[in-house]
C-alpha cells in the first residue's frame, strides 16, 4: 500500500536528496557554532551549575 502510493507520486526521488542536503547544512552549521565558541566560553558555561554567586547576590 505505502510503496504503491509512493510510486504514484511524481518526482518522489527528490525527497531523500533534499533531506540529506538539509541534514548536512544543519550539521555543518552546528559544527561551525561549536568550534567558533571558544574554550573560555564553554568553561564558563560548564561552571554555571556550581556557581553560588547568583544565590549570594539574590535578596529574598
How much β-strand is present in the residues?
Answer: under 5%
Helix and strand succession? Answer: HHHH
Q: Indicate the low-confidence ranges by residue numbers.
A: none
**Rg calc:** 23 Å
Distance between the termini: 63 Å
For the secondary structure, the number of strands is 0
Q: Please estimate the helix content.
A: over 70%
Compute the average pLDDT.
82
The outline comes out as elongated
Structural class: mainly alpha
Main sheet characteristics: none
Q: Any idea how many domains?
A: 1
**What is the helix tally?**
4
Give structural notes.
With 60 residues, the chain is mainly α. The protein has helices spanning 2-8, 14-36, 39-47, 53-57. It contains four helices and no strands. The longest helix is centred in the middle third of the chain and has 23 residues, at 14-36. The chain starts with a helix and ends with a helix. The mean pLDDT is 82.
Any descriptors?
60 residues; mainly alpha; 4 helices; 0% strand; elongated
Amino acid at each position: 500500500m505505502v510503496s504503491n502510493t509512493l510510486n504514484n507520486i511524481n518526482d518522489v526521488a527528490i525527497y531523500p536528496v533534499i533531506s540529506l542536503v538539509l541534514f548536512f547544512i544543519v550539521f555543518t552549521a552546528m559544527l561551525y557554532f561549536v568550534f567558533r565558541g571558544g574554550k573560555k566560553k564553554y568553561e564558563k558555561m560548564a561552571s554555571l551549575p556550581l556557581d553560588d554567586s547568583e544565590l549570594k547576590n539574590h535578596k529574598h
